Amino acid sequence: MDTKAAIVALLSVWGVGICASLPASAQDTGTEAAAGSEATSNPLLNRVWVRADDTGLPGPMQIFLADGTLVSDSCWETYRLSQWQQVSETEISWDEDGMTIEADITTLSDTELVLHLKLGSEVQEQRYVPATVPYVCPDIPA
């Protein structure tokens, strides 16, 4: 999956349909096919994960794409594209503003993702659930 696919996934969460304007791709490389089979066996990949713990603000989400792109978004900030990698079965890392964020995967299933982010000497737990579709960010009071 490439960056264009990440944007399409993000826009579909927002409810914006642009599929009719995208050209169909007749070429499928072996790498994409291998990534597709990995995505079906790894519940972390190619799914919109929305924060389930109370952050005080609605809609923080992460999309871990099989091509190594992490899409981060929320209802109050613009989206971010970062590189991410699965270091082991229980650890991932990604680049955020020039810093490497490391996280332990403590729970991963089709219905829940729990990460323990290693932020210096602090460990922060983040809980996620798959996004429900359609989803629209609520109005944030001014």
Please give the alpha-carbon distance between the first and last residues.
Answer: 37 Å
Question: Percentage of helical residues?
Answer: 10-25%
Percent in strands:
35-45%
Radius of gyration: 16 Å
Total of DSSP H or I helical runs spanning 4+ residues: 2
Q: Note the run of SSEs as H and E.
A: HHEEEEEEEE
Q: Structural class, from secondary structure content?
A: alpha+beta
Task: Indicate the overall shape.
Answer: globular
The major pleated sheet works out as: 8 strands, antiparallel, barrel
State the low-pLDDT regions, or none. Answer: 16-29
Chain oligomer state: single chain
What is the strand tally? 8
Average pLDDT metric: 79
Question: What would you note in describing this structure?
Answer:
By secondary structure, the chain is an alpha+beta fold. Helix content is about 15%, strand content about 40%. The chain has two helices and eight strands, in the order H-H-E-E-E-E-E-E-E-E.
Keywords:
8-stranded antiparallel beta barrel; alpha+beta; 2 helices
Concise structural overview:
With 142 residues, the protein is an alpha+beta fold. The protein has helices at residues 3-14, 30-41, and strands spanning 48-51, 61-64, 69-73, 80-88, 91-96, 99-108, 113-119, 122-130.
Secondary structure elements and pairings:
Elements: H1 3-14, H2 30-41, E1 48-51, E2 61-64, E3 69-73, E4 80-88, E5 91-96, E6 99-108, E7 113-119, E8 122-130
Antiparallel strand pairs: 1-2, 1-8, 2-3, 3-4, 4-5, 5-6, 6-7, 7-8
